[in-house]
User: What shape does this take?
Amino acid sequence: MKFIKKNIILLMVTVFAVTMFFSCKNNLKEVQKIGISENEPIGVAEDINLKYTDSGKIKAILVSPKMLDYSNRVFSFSEFTDGINLTLFDDENQKSTVTADYAIIYNNTDLMDLKGHVVLATHTKDTLFAEQLFYDQKNEWLFTNKPVTFRTGFDLINGNGFDSNSEFTNAEVLEINGIITVDE
Assistant: This one.
């Protein structure tokens, strides 16, 4: 009788231990997420001054008071809540500037969304004024369907949309609703 009780207890302990062993799983990622809300940024950078170089030449300088890093999300992005000032240099070291009150860069698509008093000024003095402008970094393409004012040469062109490559060699104001020629 004692032998049967021992075997039953041993069998129950073995079944319990095996059940516990196989029910455990690796939850390292879940444990790492404890204390980090997906709605909160994983990092905050203040007073950034980022210089991007290629082959020893400065290609871009990004200055912003604040950047929020949301790379902890499935569709990760960086948000510049207090605006940006971006200086771009071409192969001849001529600079163009972009300023905006707010910017967000989507890491998975390389799409930049600029909002609020967006001003893009090229080294040739062409200037685009918009409330919102998208920049596709992969294709080096600028576009918007919001109202814009584009100054090129002596012309000020108003319209509802803009489409151009980053060099402005084929800049096009869409749905033109006025052209003003300015004498200088």
About this structure: The longest helix spans residues 2-23. The chain has one domain: 41-181. Helices lie at 2-23, 28-33.
